[in-house]
Amino acid sequence: MFHKTITGNLLHRNIHHCGFRAFIGLSILLATLLGWPASGTAAEGLRIGVAANFLQATKELAAAFEKQTGIQVEATFASSGSLYAQIANGSPYDLFLSADEERPAKLHREGNADKPFVYARGRVVLWSARKSSCSATDWRQALADPAIRKIAVANPETAPYGAAARAALQKAGLWDSIQEKRVTAQDIAQTFQYASTEAVDWGFCAFSSVVSEQGRKGCHYEIPEAPEIVQAACIVKQTQNRAGAERFAAFLLSAPAVGVKEKYGYR
Amino acid sequence: MDFLSLYVTLKLALVATILLLLIAAPIAYVLAYAHFPGKALFEALIYLPIALPPTVMGFYLILAMGPKGAVGRAWGLLTGGSLLFTFLGIVAASVLYSIPFAVQPIKAAFLKIDPRLLENAAVLGLSRFAAFIRVVLPNSIGGMAAASILVFLHTIGAFGVLLMVGGSVPGVTKVASIAVYEAVEAMDYRTAGWMSLCFIPISYIFLLLVNRLNGEARHGA
Asked: Which of A149, A184, A197 has the CB atom closest to B169's CB atom?
């Protein structure tokens, strides 16, 4: 309805010279806006879906890769479960960097992806934005503090870091006792966001966000009970740019990439 | 099926609706009858939540209601607790989010009242407040009902704001729309399907109610 009115007005004003110029201006604006996405997703560009924990590292890796190869990388960050669901339903990604081995393996079994490979090993830590919070001897003692109001854990069903946190909490016998205080974040990035805005007292965050500039302002505990998070990637079967995807996959394991990964605490 | 989150949704919608009627009626009254400098600015501010992306509201609400934010600190001093990730927190978010949907129909109903009724009330010696309670409110029941149902439905449909400030705590802040989202993310399409199906009859029944109320308002008056 709005559309019709606007067009009608423009046609009417065409008679006047001034209105005609406005019409031309609007057309150019419209054409630019409509043309915008086309220039963003150039044919040789890569679209990669990346687990949220790998955000910082990906930005640096993508910049280095673009410099080296001239191939544009456009990354989308979400929980691994969410990205898996998108790819299984045909979302046009070229490459999937998961936070676990399970989901790439599943995509491979279902015929949606090539054979997965491990690109990083991460770990989950307990992080607080307040430096003064870390006076306990270990993470279990830190969580026992009755002054704690809220603790953030990424959704264990979709976020592997959340699943690792749950496994550690269950192993330590604390899972049931923190239920009252537990807040569910949709992915590990939201977990860190809740913790860094001090909306929660503690967050089970990725070690990679703890070594970031924001992360160094707080303090963290290691969690020996948490399983190491083995992160696998895979090339999506229906990629339109297999050559580019293969180059990025190889780049992920190259020496310069290893340096970046180590910087963010991945092994 | 996640009945708990459906219950949270209905509870949230009910509480937000009642609170909003109490908040929106005086605001609508001011917008309908008062004249003061900056009224247009005030009115635009009230309608701002319609134009803002829910994520923008969610972002500001996290900052404001967090322990460092003004609202969060005041709340902490008053109650000793935190507002984020609690039921009251999502009630506050929903109230802000739906304020335009409550104010607009009530204001329209107020404006439709014959000004001679108010003049009569004044002549008969009713104070402004008494006139509001005894003349304005009874004559704008239709608008109030429309506002309640709109707010109720808008709260049932809320998602982005609640995802950002709710923290998805089962039984407390995990509403049905978030439960659907999480089920889809986890590829649990069975649960997602059943939950989604629940929304249709609920929303449909309430929309039928809106129509009926509108019809009654037309015949009744």
From this structure: A184
pLDDT for position A25: 78
Give the chain B residue nearest A160 (alpha carbons): B186
Q: Say yes or no for a CB contact (<8 Å) between A81 and B187.
A: yes
Q: Each residue of A133-159: pLDDT tens digit?
A: 999 999 999 999 999 999 999 999 999
Of B62, B163, B168, the CB nearest to A197: B62
**pLDDT for position B220:** 52
Q: Which residue ranges form the domains of chain B, and what is each CATH number? A: 3-220 (1.10.3720.10)
Determine whether the interchain pair A184/B167 forms a contact, defined as Cβ–Cβ distance below 8 Å. yes
For chain A, what are the domain ranges?
Answer: 12-40, 46-121+231-263, 124-221
- B38-68 pLDDT tens trace: 999 999 999 999 999 999 999 999 889 988 8
Shortest CA gap B174–chain A (Å): 9
CATH class, range A46-121+231-263: alpha beta
Tell me whether residues B85 and A183 touch, CB distance under 8 A: yes
pLDDT given for residue A14 in this prediction:
44
The answer on pLDDT for A57 being more than 80 is yes
Question: Of A217, A221, A227, nearest to A204 (Cα)?
Answer: A221
Find residues 149-178 of chain A whose CB sits inside 8 Å of chain B: 149-150, 152, 155, 157-158
Q: Is A91 on the interface with B (CB under 8 A)?
A: no
Q: Do B167 and A194 touch (CB under 8 A)?
A: yes
The CATH number of A124-221, from 3.30.70.270, 3.40.50.2300, 3.90.930.12, 3.40.190.10, is 3.40.190.10
Structure confidence by residue, pLDDT tens digits, B149-195? 999 999 999 999 999 898 888 999 999 999 999 998 888 889 999 99
In single-letter form, the type of residue at position A38 comes to A
